[in-house]
Automatic annotation (TrEMBL):
Organism listed in the record: Breoghania corrubedonensis
SUPFAM superfamilies named in the record: alpha/beta knot
Start and end residues of each tRNA/rRNA methyltransferase SpoU type domain: 6-139
Record-linked CDD domains: SpoU-like (cd18098)
InterPro entries: Alpha/beta_knot_MTases, rRNA_Methyltransferase, SpoU_MeTrfase, tRNA_m1G_MTases_N
GO terms, biological process: methylation; RNA processing
Name of this protein: SpoU rRNA methylase family protein
Any matching Pfam family: SpoU_methylase
Keyword terms, alphabetized: Methyltransferase, Transferase
Signal sequence, start to end: none
GO molecular function, one term: RNA binding
Gene3D superfamilies listed in its UniProt record: 3.40.1280.10
């Protein structure tokens, strides 16, 4: 898969939800996981993180939004049920992205929303569990950014196998015309 992603929570207070989210992030190959303004009890690995994610994936516990330090070019994507949010199935994931969810029984703060380059929503009738919401977004990212066989138009397994990518020679671009270096 091209690019990278990270996922985190602002203001999380439930240790088990954080553990479920970061374990799932580890499974999907997150570059790092994070919390912002989290409950002080979250200084240890939650028992629900059975893969012990911080042993394999960087974990950042930022005290405030001002303390956040995302890599250069990384787009912050808020996941929130707002009127102006883009529905997840219609969203084009940035190549380099950090996704942030709000706390249980709450929302992303206005300050966090102001920092977001994009805000997306999962098209559900009401808020769902924070770890479940994160898993849905990560699955959608992997599904759209990865290389998989096309889905069939009817139910069932794909009819065609994924065609292996063939690397060609280097390509240079001059205006709108493309040519290879060897001719």
């Amino acid at each position: 898969m091209r690019g990278y992603f990270a996922i985190g929570i602002e203001g999380v207070s439930k240790v088990m939800n954080l553990g479920n989210l970061i374990r799932t992030a580890h499974g999907f190959g997150a570059a790092f996981v994070f919390t912002v303004d989290a409950d002080k009890r979250l200084g240890r690995v939650p028992p629900s993180d059975t893969s012990r994610t911080p042993d394999h994936t960087p974990y950042y516990a930022w005290k405030s939004i001002e303390d956040m330090q995302l890599p250069g070019g990384c787009k912050l994507v808020g996941i929130e049920l707002t009127d102006d949010a883009v529905d997840l199935p219609s969203f084009g994931h940035p190549l380099k992205a950090a996704y942030v969810l709000g706390p249980e029984r709450g929302s992303l703060s206005p300050e966090m929303l102001a920092q977001c380059d994009h805000v997306i929503r999962i098209p559900t009738g009401f808020c769902i569990n924070v770890a479940t919401a994160g898993a849905i977004v990560m699955y959608d990212r992997v599904r759209t950014m990865g290389r998989f066989a096309e889905r069939p138009l009817v139910g069932g397994a794909p009819r065609a196998e994924l065609v292996e990518h063939v690397h060609g020679g280097p390509i240079t671009r001059t205006g709108k015309k493309r040519r290879t270096l060897d001719g």
